[in-house]
Specification:
Layout (H helix, E strand, L loop, with lengths): L17 H20 L3 E11 L49 E11 L5 E7 L10 H14 L4 E6 L18 E7 L2 E10 L8 E3 L8 E3 L1 H11 L18 H13 L4
Parallel strand pairs: 3-4
Antiparallel strand pairs: 1-2, 2-3, 4-5, 5-6, 7-8
């Protein structure tokens, strides 16, 4: 079953589902690009690693909410006799981040023979958009390092929540953002603001001159991601998405989903 939305499906942004969506997006972008990169270039998944700690604001999207968990009673089990003085209260189960070392995947395009880095493609994660978060610091340091080199930078932001990496006067406010900064033309970044009501535009992934850009059909990537991830089995379109849509967009989505028979 395909997504009912024309472009990015806002129901895929929920924190519980997004890590899997992010993984699948990276895989589908690589699968879409490698046939056009052969034989001179190759796209590979690489990891950006940073350490989160107890003071990291990004933990709100890394660790689930605190919840109360009760153990089910076995059928026919007798209630143990205990003195009232030693009765034990039900605990609150607090989830912890088991591994403070966080790994976020990105794509790197390299020249096959020299292994030189040519292009970095980042699909933005929630931690990359929280001010003061370790994930944002790591993301911005990596971006600034690339922008100071001759390596091309491609940024795909399909999350409505949080602080975008680029905020400049005159930029049209948008739900989603795509950006390409070419290593041979840093003064003129390519920027696409996209509404939740729109299909994602195809973009060109830059390579070394004189090689032409490789086209990337992001809407086709989204469709493949949704299908391969079987996200229709996890999404409940009867409820509002998380985060919630703006009022006008919520009314539009309600009409869209009602016409699709999902509400």
């Amino acid at each position: 079953m395909p997504s009912p939305f024309p472009g990015m499906d806002p129901y895929l942004e929920t924190p519980e589902l997004w890590p899997d969506v992010h993984h699948e997006l990276i895989s589908q972008i690589r699968a879409a690009l490698n046939p056009g990169l052969r034989p001179q270039y190759v796209a590979r998944v690489e990891l950006r690693v940073y350490v989160s700690d107890q003071d990291d604001p990004g933990r709100e999207v890394l660790v689930p909410d605190v919840r109360i968990e009760k153990r089910p009673k076995a059928r026919g089990a007798r209630k143990a006799r205990r003195p009232a003085a030693v009765a034990v209260a039900e605990p609150i189960i607090i989830p912890f981040l088991a591994d403070p070392e966080i790994k976020e995947a990105r794509l790197e395009i390299r020249e096959r023979r020299s292994n030189d880095l040519v292009t970095v493609i980042e699909v933005v994660s929630p931690t990359n958009k929280i001010r003061g978060a370790r994930g944002r610091v790591s993301f911005m340091e990596k971006r600034d390092g690339i922008l100071a080199s001759d390596v091309h930078w491609v940024e795909i932001d399909l999350l409505r929540a949080g602080q975008p990496s680029v905020t400049r006067p005159g930029l049209v406010p948008s739900d989603y953002r795509l950006m390409v900064s070419r290593g041979d033309d840093r003064r003129h970044g390519r920027y696409w603001p996209v509404s939740v009501r729109q299909a994602l535009p195809p973009i060109g992934i830059p390579l070394r001159k004189p090689d032409a850009d490789v086209p990337l059909d992001l809407n086709a990537v989204l469709a493949a991601t949704y299908d391969r991830g079987a996200y229709d089995l996890s999404v409940d379109y009867r409820r509002p998405p998380v985060p919630a849509l703006a009022t006008d967009d919520a009314a539009w989505a309600d009409d869209l989903l009602s016409k699709a028979g999902l509400r």
